[in-house]
Design brief:
It is built from two helices and 34 strands. A hairpin with a 4-residue loop joins strand 1 and strand 2. Helix content is 9%, strand content 45%.
Length: 364
């Protein structure tokens, strides 16, 4: 018998004004170089690339268990849970990992806090960070050392300095009931889905201010993911059974909505293979979108009950789906788009998932 999903799903590098032109050039060049590299890799031998660069793979999956008040950690090399569940706040929803600093950030929707986990020791560090009401989504900007937390009950976004683990500045007001958040580190933007106003707000991560007008998308937007290489944001509209695509260079919706399954919730991008993976919580399946053509492809991939958030590991060739209604995680082989192995048991009502690596000394 399926259950309903949890109530809430889950410093600037170039500061000198005289260097703004250089930064713009660098940003554009970075995007062009990345796009060329991804296109070349996916067109030739993405699997061979992944094999040669195994040390770059994420080898831990962090799962926020909304009904247990815990985070489960899965070793993605063995697809087995490692260690005991990590106790955080009430109804954890979203989770994001800063692999540079070895920290995972967990939005506790029932405690109005964010817990910080040391990914090496798998222990909570410091006191919970107070944010707004009912935090749901969280995203990390590793370049600027910031975490962005969508506070669904406050209609705001809180910004956390990941070096000091403190909130910086005043909450940023966005639309109604913000749910998901994703960061475009290259362009210095955070995209926030406002589920209560059917819009997406865009935050300048340098000035911590909303830029432009809200972008109108479908009904009840929830998950959002950035494809920085192709310059697109993919927004899941839960009540429209569709995905909207935003050009993040112009911040305008492009093309028609892409129809997926019933009750879509989360989305994640595999830039190497040019795919977006969308969880359909009411269809118990994952839809695939070709990010080159922005069209749904293939048949939906059956998973377990109530799939919520999803995370992709392009180098390992896997997608990880949190099944909120069956207390498990399904693993999809992104080369064949088939589920591999048995569902991995985790805590009660898992929602948010995020990939990362525990901080460790470099091998010489």
């Amino acid at each position: 018998m399926s259950r309903t999903l949890p109530e809430l799903l889950p410093g600037d590098v170039f500061a000198s004004p005289r260097r703004s032109a250089w930064r713009q050039w660098l940003d554009r060049s970075s995007v062009i170089l990345a796009a060329f590299s991804i296109a070349l890799l996916s067109a030739t031998a993405s699997d061979a690339f992944a094999a040669r660069h195994k040390d770059l793979r994420s080898d831990r999956l962090y799962v926020a268990n909304g009904g247990s008040g815990t985070v489960s950690v899965i070793d993605t090399r063995t697809n087995a849970v490692v260690g005991a569940p990590i106790h955080v706040g009430k109804r954890p929803a979203g989770v994001a990992v800063d692999s540079v600093r070895g920290r995972a950030y967990v939005a506790n929707s029932g405690s109005d806090t964010v817990s910080v986990i040391n990914t090496k020791t798998r222990t909570v560090v410091g006191s919970p960070i107070r944010v707004g009401k009912n935090p749901s989504g969280v995203a990390v900007d590793r370049v600027r050392g910031r975490a962005y937390v969508a506070n669904s009950g406050s209609d705001t976004v809180s910004v956390i300095n990941t070096k000091t683990r403190t909130v910086v500045g005043s909450p940023i007001h966005v639309g109604k009931n913000p749910s998901g958040v994703a960061v475009d580190r290259v362009r210095g933007r955070a995209y926030v889905t406002n589920s209560g106003s059917d819009t997406v707000s865009v935050i300048n991560t340098k000035t911590k201010t909303v830029v432009g007008s809200p972008i109108h998308v479908g009904k009840n937007p929830s998950g959002v993911a950035i494809d920085g290489v192709r310059g697109r944001a993919y927004v899941v509209n839960a009540h429209s059974y569709a995905v909207s695509v935003i050009d993040i260079n112009t911040n305008k919706v492009v093309g028609a909505s892409i129809h997926v399954g019933k009750g879509p919730a989360g989305v994640a991008i595999d830039s190497l293979r040019g795919r977006a993976y969308v969880t359909n919580s009411d269809s118990y399946a994952v839809s695939l979108i070709n990010t080159r053509t922005n069209a749904a492809v293939g048949s939906p991939i059956p998973v377990r009950y109530g799939p919520a958030w999803v995370a992709t590991d392009a180098l390992r060739g896997r997608a990880y789906v949190a099944n909120s209604g069956s207390d498990s995680v399904s693993v999809i082989d992104t080369s064949t788009n088939a589920v591999v192995g048995s569902p991995i048991p985790v805590g009660n009502a898992p929602a948010g998932v995020a990939l990362g690596r525990p901080l460790r000394p470099a091998k010489h």
